[in-house]
């Protein structure tokens, strides 16, 4: 261990005290970000605001990557030959109109909202940076702060940051990411070693038929009926082709026919998603989806165009690193405040980091039923309990310090 139990506990107390003292500032920062959200790849004002804090408040040098990404380093004592720990936060918002119920920090950018907690993530990392900057004499090595754009939109800001050199000069030995979870109560956190989050792919199918009068179907090739059969038939890709031990999801959320009560349209468009936790099966499923959709359409006299846009890979937490982080979180919060997570079929572009270096992606509880903070991410009334900012900043800092000592 880097610290004796006595010194470890003393350092935890110092970090907790600093996080508590920072709470008013962190709350103000989070509300600023929440009120001024920017969509993926458009985070220019957010990036400039982050840079201003890093440079003018903390005295750190920062640089831009992928246009709206920001990277900075905090050097400990004796950095040469020592470990580099990367800490990542995402900054983008979603194209959702906020339903705020009178909250004073409602989005000022109509139709854009921090509905996934990225305002909390950015604030937590700035808070952790503030704490780590004051404690640099306590650790050897380097903390790499990564403020990433465009987690919410393909091809994902993480992939662009990696292409632009975020994992170089210096290369992180490990990456740690934090994400809010409204299913977990404030004060708690969650970890899962190994396979955690699914890959995600977007499916676009256009069915071509022959439109005409709804009362004369024998003169038409009905793409609506073909679409219905494709949607139903493709469920066999999961139910009869996937190994039951491999989680898989195939869902269609958008159907556009544009006929009327008595008009059969000439084409129908379908949009959906395929997710799984096995990369080989992922590729096989793409082929099966294409072949089955084509076969169904042709057997009914129509044709299809199938486009599958390959999205984020599966997210796999490094076993050893995640066990270490979970143990460190238990030291910081207490055993009873650290939960085991289940597999999560949502996707995250943090997965790109996990493909390159040992990584740990963990969850921060933000649920507070007494305050009515219970909505899921991507809900128009989503909110987070700002009391979680203390743990968000403090635990982030503590995990980094602990990992530098391993």
How would you describe this protein?
49% of the residues are buried. 35% of the residues lie in helices and 24% in strands. It is elongated, with a radius of gyration of 24 Å. The strands form four sheets. It has an eight-stranded mixed sheet, sandwiched between helices. Strands 10-12-8-13 form a four-stranded antiparallel sheet. It has a two-stranded antiparallel sheet with strand order 7-14. It has 406 residues and is α/β, with parallel strands linked by helices. The chain folds into two domains: 283 residues, Aminopeptidase, CATH 3.40.630.10; 110 residues, Alpha-Beta Plaits (2-Layer Sandwich), CATH 3.30.70.
- Supply the number of structural domains: 2
Radius of gyration, taken over Cα atoms and rounded to an integer in Å: 24 Å
Looking at the overall shape, the CATH architecture of the largest domain is 3-Layer(aba) Sandwich
What portion of the residues fall into strands of 2 or more residues?
15-25%
Helical amount: 25-40%
Report the uncertain regions. Answer: none
Largest sheet: 8 strands, mixed
What are the secondary-structure elements, in order, as H or E?
Answer: HHEEEHEHEEEEEHHEEEHEEHEHEH
| CATH homologous superfamily grouping of the largest domain | Zn peptidases
Instruction: Briefly note the structural class of the backbone.
Output: alpha/beta
The shape is elongated
Termini, distance in Å?
7 Å
CATH fold descriptor of the largest domain:
Aminopeptidase
Tell me, what is the CATH class of the largest domain? Alpha Beta
Task: Look at the structure and give the mean pLDDT.
Answer: 96
